[in-house]
Design goal:
Order of helices and strands: EHHEEEEHEEHHH
Shape: elongated
Helix content: 40-55%
Mean pLDDT: 84
Low-confidence stretches: none
Radius of gyration: 25 Å
Oligomer: single chain
Length: about 200
């Protein structure tokens, strides 16, 4: 199910809308299949004793409940990248959410074990300004591709801010210089472009 557009701001568009990698369901699925297989095997025997049948049935019920809970967790987890922010939601009964504006993201990294590389899965670590600092997001497909998408979204948002800054006459030269320094640090503009625009602003002081 796609992330509801009613939660987006005016003019905001979704770039990436993800749920955890399918491997998130592998453990509960394997446990359920094993429990059901054992239950079928015991039930197929001629008149199995109750001391064998009841524990096996209970095990199958527990395996089913474990799978349903994990499936509900998978269905209620949203990792959404928009043109303005990064949105993370999870939780079945109680919900937990985190939103990080793109302009506050300082770094995005990913980690993959050898097994995760085989499955094209991995974990993301987003570093942002503020009290929390770092946020970890696990079990997603193609983490390197997600990392690249986040970087592209940051650059696009910074370029839009630069365009808005150019059209806002109320910004003083010093304020524009601060914005330019931020763009240079993010790599949106080169050092040569920064030096040229900086000199133009200093000439106006």
């Amino acid at each position: 199910m796609a992330f509801p557009k009613k939660y987006l701001n005016d003019g905001e568009e979704i770039i990436v809308d993800l749920r955890p990698h399918w491997f998130f369901l592998f453990g509960p699925s394997a446990a359920l299949i094993a429990a059901l297989t054992l239950a079928v095997w015991v039930g197929s025997r001629d008149d199995p004793p109750d001391w064998q049948l009841f524990p096996v049935i209970a095990l199958a019920v527990i395996g089913l409940l474990f799978f349903l809970v994990r499936l509900a967790q998978w269905m209620t987890t949203d990792f959404v990248l928009t043109t303005d922010r990064l949105i993370y939601r999870k939780g079945i009964v109680s919900r937990h959410g985190r939103e990080i504006p793109l302009e506050r993201i300082n770094d995005v990294s990913f980690t993959q074990t050898l097994f995760q590389r085989m499955l094209r899965a991995g974990d993301l670590l987003v570093e942002s300004g503020g009290e929390r600092g770092q946020s970890a997001f696990g079990h997603f497909a193609d983490p390197q591709g997600i990392q690249n998408e986040i970087h592209r979204a940051i650059e696009s948002a910074a370029a839009r801010d630069a365009d808005r800054m150019a059209g806002r006459r109320e910004l003083s030269p010093l304020e524009q210089l601060e914005k330019l320094e931020e763009l240079r640090q993010r790599g949106v503009i080169s050092q040569a472009e920064f030096d040229l625009k900086k000199q133009n602003l200093l000439d106006r002081l």
